[in-house]
Every structure is written in structure tokens, then in C-alpha cells.
Amino acid sequence: MTQPKIIVVGGGLAGLMATIRAAEAGVPVDLFSIVPVKRSHSVCAQGGINAAKNQKGEGDTTDKHFDDTIYGGDFLANQPLVKRMCEAAPGIIDLLDRMGVMFNRTSEGLLDYRRFGGTLYHRTAFAGATTGQQLLYALDEQVRRHEAEGKVRKFEGWTFLSTVIDEGRICRGICAMDLRTMEVKTFAADAAIFATGGIGAIFGRSTNSVVCTGSAQSALFQQGVDYANGEFIQVHPTAIPGEDKLRLMSESARGEGGRVWVPRNPAEKRRPKDVPEAERFYFLEEWYPKYGNLVPRDIATRAIHRIVYQEKLGLDGQAAVYLDVTQIPRETLKRKLEGILEIYEKFLGVDPREEPMKVFPGMHYTMGGIWVNGEDQASNVPGIYAAGECEYQYHGANRLGANSLVSCIFGGGLAGAAASKYAKNLERGAASTSSAAFDAEKKRQEKKNQKLLSQDGSENPITIWRELGDVMTEHVTVTRINKNLEAADAKLRTLQERYKKINLSDRTKWSNQTLNFARELENMLILARVITLGAVARNESRGAHYKPDFPDRDDANWLKTTRAKWVNCDIQLTYEPVDVTLIKPRARRYDAVK
Amino acid sequence: MAETKQVIIRVKRQAGPKEPARWEDFSLKWRPSMNAIICLRDIAENPVTRDGKKTTPITYDSNCLEEICGSCAMLINGKARMACSALVDHLEQPIRLEPMSKFPLVRDLAVDRQFMFESLKRVKAWIPIDGTYDLGEGPRVSPEVQEKGYPLSNCITCGNCLEVCPQVNEHNQFVGAAIISQVRLFNMHPTGAMNKRERLEALMGPGGIQECANAQNCVHACPKGIPLTESIAEVNRDAWKQALLGWLLG
């Protein structure tokens, strides 16, 4: 038998963890990433990583972490694997600690923990306000070590185009494109793990990085890999609006005592510092006395929208509220929040230590993603695994802050181990697959490139992308109304028609970013429709999915997972029950005691 | 009709490593809080030069757009910096965009910084853990060490410190300040310190720490404010100590 081999696509936290586990299992890995893996979007995660270590004597337990996660996700997550993740979380922190992550420390030299949204415990370990960057670097370093030992080969600057699926409907490798030479090539592997992250670009502007387009997920979907709960999109309550991106202001600002407010008088003209306490409306603290500024993100986002659009209390009549950290001691800000305060200062030219920040909700995360089973991150196509933000498993209808990093590392580790085992136990490995399947896939992808490079048309890909982002942000984020959702889908179909007339202003064959972007755009349009159609169908409100015409959660009809399938080149929605065997669903009320 | 404010951008174009370089000017519509990346996107949507000639969109690297991924380093008005945080209103026009000069050019503003990642391999910039299975907690670290180490660990491998270093040139393979600072970080960690010797040795060959000529440009160019000169001084002392000890013990 030949040596089994694994491909990992994506070099963020989940992809790197999967790579490490496979390398440890003795299976060589080819790691593909658009950017050098150290530049992956995980670097943008700020606030921290959750684990019930109970190091503040509060009686925190992994069961409470599990309950907060399920309740925070409005009971849409399948429960058994979430429980396993919460139980594994303390060990994950230990592992990262051993890898040398410069976590903040207590005076005893132990890890420090802070509060985050949707929990009443100090459960979040952190490294300043750049925790994602610090964790990614730790895993990047370990992968570099495996690379130096010859266990991992990196293909940085390559983009995934499609998988190679044989006549038995088994994945035997991938087809990818070198972003410099624009060469299309196939790579054989016994299993492929996808850790391709978020989909922010579908919403135009978001807190995500440029590479977070969801293109890989969409390509997989079009090859028969199911996509689950696409309609669940997290809009983070506190971001700084910008034309190129919405820059995140971490929940940790509130975890460390930051307060959200607006002047009670909408005509207030004084500087924020001069507005007396009694004339400030700390609306989250008033509306949610127990959790205050640390309600989950969907709740805080809707509250800010209500303040701005219904109460008309936005700052200077604009879509903005204050996020105020000026009352926190300077020394604490320096040790615990410096990274995000620097971002605010650099991009806005205002010192947030002196003056409250102006923030507004921004698209941040997808709870939905590639459908995987409840055991080992395997998709419905044999040989294809998924981990991290690109899959749907852990966060239900709303993700709690600081749970994403733990789900990336837990899911990535699980996928790496499971794919290795699968690859070792395959009766007939990829090496036995006929070259015809590989040749056919390569030809199909090359043909796409040739068509895009040669066709004449009137449409610019960036213009179509901007319109895509506008319609998705307007109708498919915080407040969803069926009539508008249907209009959004009609618009998406128009954009798909216009896409056919796309004209690339660059037809060269060296480092042509326009060609790659055009390919991604086609995939984004399809995934946008999966999200929108899922939202149209789900006539209830649950977690981040809010329909004023159906304001309540409807467990009788909608306690189920949306599972989109690609059938005859079209999107078909199917549903399956949620595993709620461990915690019985109960009403989710953050304004009352849990 | 009110005159709309324009932004004039001058970009150094090069279709590939072996192609000739040329300059192209673009005139864009000014908007509040514009940065260099927004300008490049505007050009991609309408790739027409200031004098009305059709051209191609500009190839450049970018990802996070908040100065933490390290992708978009380039020369802006001659200064090595990140494009995402280069705000148009703070820049003199025409705004000149050029690729970094110390790394192999890919196309237009995109360069290949693989050398830095290879250097991280050379100095073994990692903590050699036994495995990812459960081995309990890591060593205790005092807040003092954490507060020294964390800023070093903020290095985004952007390459600005190499770009401004006179010792990084075609005549030598100096690894540069970023890498030396990483050696300091790993040598500071209780577990990392066990391989301190190996890392220092890796820094003593050609392209190693002795190439530093103390120009101190690096520390001023670092977008993350990392105390690079302090790192070089400390690692240099350690390297000398180790070399001397090796010589004494023969």
C-alpha cells in the first residue's frame, strides 16, 4: 500500500490545527492557502478564547460553558459535539500555553481570564486584544517546524478551484490555481480538509479579511457538498464603519468595563465627556440589567438598531452609538485592550482613551457553513472534511464571543485526526484513481479561465460585487422581511445574468488578480442565494435570524437544521432535526434571569 | 457645478519580474477616510489612467486591512509602510506607490517575502513541544516576562524593517531585525530557552546578527512599534557570550 496523503485547504487556526494533527499521525500534508498562512484572517480575532477553567473561584464548569453556548445559539446546534468541545476547551488552552502563546497573566503567573458576552463567568483567556493573531502565530510556528522536518509541504499563493471526485463519488484530490503563473493543476490526496473561513465579502463590507469570500465553500456546494444553516449571519454590535471594511471593536472592550450609550436628548450638542451621567442612556444596561453590556451579539445588535432606527437616538442623527472606555484606568487599557484602541486611533485619528468611540453593527461571522456530521467533521462526500468558520456545527443560531477560536482549534484537530484515520484505512487510495478524473477536472477549470479571459462584455466584476454587497447588507442581515428577501433574491439572479457579460480589464497570464476575483464572484453569487433562500423560508425568529413578521422562536415548526443541496444546478432546501438530547430547549430571555 | 475634489495617485507598474517598469497616474474622486487600498480598488473598478488611457488593474497584496496581517507593505511617497493605514488626507499628492525594493518583484506592487518565512525556519522560531496531546498546563510566566514578550510577538512579518535596512542588499543575506527579535522572544520563554543555543548559533553564520551595522532605521519603520534595536542589542550580547564561552571551553 502506498503512503496515504492529506490535503488541507486554508491556513487559519482550523487548517493549521488539522495540519498539525495529521502530521503527528504520520500522514504527510499538502497545505494550500491563498495568502502566506501567517497572514490568514484568524489574525483579526481580538478578544480571546473561552474555556471553563474556573480560575476566578466563581464555580464555572464545562457544563455551564456548554449550556451558555447552546442557550446563546438559541438551541439550533446539535448538542453532543458542542458538549465535547466545551469539555476539551481547558485542554486546548493548556496546549496553546505550552506552545508559548503570550497570554495575559495574573500576578501568580497563571493565565488571566476576562468576561465576554452571553456568560456571567470570567471564562475568556486573552493575549492583549490580539488573541487571534497570537494563537495563529503559535500554530503557524508549529506547522513551520513540521515543514522544516519535511512532514508538511506548503502551497502558499494557490487558490482552491474544485475537488476531484471519481466515478464512485469519492473525493480523490483537488484542483487549484497558482496565483502567479495562473497555472491550473490537480493534486491527488486520500482526503481533503477544508478550513476556508468566513464569507464576509458576500456582504461587501464586513469585519472580514479580503480573502474571506466563501468561494471555496460555494465551489464545494456545487460539487454536491451540502451547506447548512446558511441564513444565520452574525452582525457584530460594535464595528467602526469604513468604506473598505468595517473594523471590529472587540467585545472585550465591554468585557473590561466598556459601556454603550447615547445621549438621551437626540439634539445633544455637547461633547460626550460633557454630557452628565443622568442624561446618558445606557440602553443595554437598562434593558438587560443582568447581562448589561455583555448580552450576546444578536441581542446587542438589535438593541443598537432599535436605538438608531426606532428611537431615533443615533449620534447626530447618524447610524452610530458610543462605546465608551474612557472610565477604565489607563494602565488596564494598555495591558488588555491596546491592540484595538490603536486601530481606532490609527484609522479615525481620535484617541479612544479620551473620547468615546463611535461604533455601529457590522457583518462579522457566518454560523452556517459546510454540512458536517456530528462525529468527526466529515461532509456528506467521502474524503471531504471541514473545520472552522466554513462549517456549521458549533454555534447554532448565534455564536458567543470567544467561542470561535475554540471551535476552530477543536474542529481542526478533530478533522486532522479523522481524515488521517480515513486515509490510512482506505482500501483503494487516491493513487489508484484513474488519471481521467484528474484530467477532466483540470480541463473543466482551464476552460472557465479561457472563457473569462477571452469574452467581451460590458460588466465590471467589482461593480457587480459592490451591488451584491449592498443588497445583502440591506436585506439579509439584522432585520429580515420576506418581501425584501424575495426582492434580494431577484436582484441576485439579475446579477448572475449580468455576470455572464463580465469583461476582465486584465487578460494577462501572470499574477492576474482580476481573473481570480471574477472566479470568486461567480461562487459568491451562488452562496448569497443559499443564504437568502434559507432566510426566506425560515418563518420564525431565532438567534441572529430576526423577522419582525414572525417575532418568536417557533420550535414546533423550525427547531431544525437547514440543509441546502445542489440539485440539477439549482439550490434545494431540505431540513433535518436538531439533536437536543442533552439540554431541553427553553425560552431565551436575556432581559429576565436565565 | 461644484468641483469635486480629486486624488492623484502615481503607481509604479511592472508586468513581471523581467518586464520594464513604468509609471502611471490616476485621478480618483476624493471621499472621506480614503486610504491607499481604497484608491487601488477604485482603479480596479475603472482602470483608466489620468490621461484617459485604458490599463489593467494594479496587482497588490492585501488582506486584513487593519494592519495586523502584514500583507500590504509598500513604499508610499518613498516610505515603507502598510497601505491600509495610509490615509489619503495625511499624504502629499501626487501619492506615489512603489513596490518594496528589497524583495523579488512579482508584479506591480506585489513582492515575494518568502525569504522572511525561510529565515524563521533557519532560527527555529518555535517552542519545541512534545506533541498536541494533553500534557497539562504550560510553565508559569511572570506578568513581567509576558509584558516584554507580547510586544515582540506582535511582529506581522511585513518586511518594512528589512526594506529600510542598509545592510539588506544584494551583497548579503542579512536576516533582518524582525527575525532577530523573534529569536529574543523564543529565548525568553521558559520552554523556548531550552533551545536558546541552537537559535543563537543559527544567527551567527552568514547573514546573521553580525551583519547589523546599527543604522537603527528598523525601529522607526516598524508599524507595530516593536523595540527592534533593543532586541538586536540583547540577542547580540547573548550571541557574543555564547561565542566567547565556546572559545574559552575550546
Q: Features of this protein?
A:
heterodimer; A: 594 residues; alpha+beta; FAD/NAD(P)-binding domain; Flavocytochrome C3, Chain A, domain 1; Methane Monooxygenase Hydroxylase, Chain G, domain 1; 3 domains; 6-stranded antiparallel sheet; 5-stranded parallel sheet; 16 helices; globular; B: 250 residues; Ubiquitin-like (UB roll); Fumarate Reductase Iron-sulfur Protein, Chain B, domain 2; 5-stranded mixed sheet
Structure commentary:
- Chain A is of the alpha+beta class.
- Chain A folds into three domains: 293 residues, FAD/NAD(P)-binding domain; 126 residues, Succinate dehydrogenase/fumarate reductase flavoprotein, catalytic domain (Flavocytochrome C3, Chain A, domain 1); 123 residues, Methane Monooxygenase Hydroxylase, Chain G, domain 1 (Up-down Bundle), CATH 1.20.58.
- Chain A contains 16 helices and 21 strands.
- In chain A, the strands form five sheets. Chain A has a six-stranded antiparallel beta sheet.
- In chain A, β1, α1 and β2 form a beta-alpha-beta unit.
- In chain A, α13 runs parallel beside α15.
- The longest helix of chain A is centred in the C-terminal third of the chain and has 25 residues.
- Chain B is an alpha+beta fold and 250 residues long.
- Chain B has two domains: 106 residues, Roll (Ubiquitin-like (UB roll)); 135 residues, Alpha-helical ferredoxin (Fumarate Reductase Iron-sulfur Protein, Chain B, domain 2, Orthogonal Bundle).
- In chain B, a hairpin with a 2-residue loop joins β3 and β4.
- The N and C termini of chain B lie far apart (83 Å).
- Classes of the chains: A alpha+beta (594), B alpha+beta (250).
- At the A-B interface, α1, α3, α4, β13 and α10 of A face α1, α2 and α3 of B.
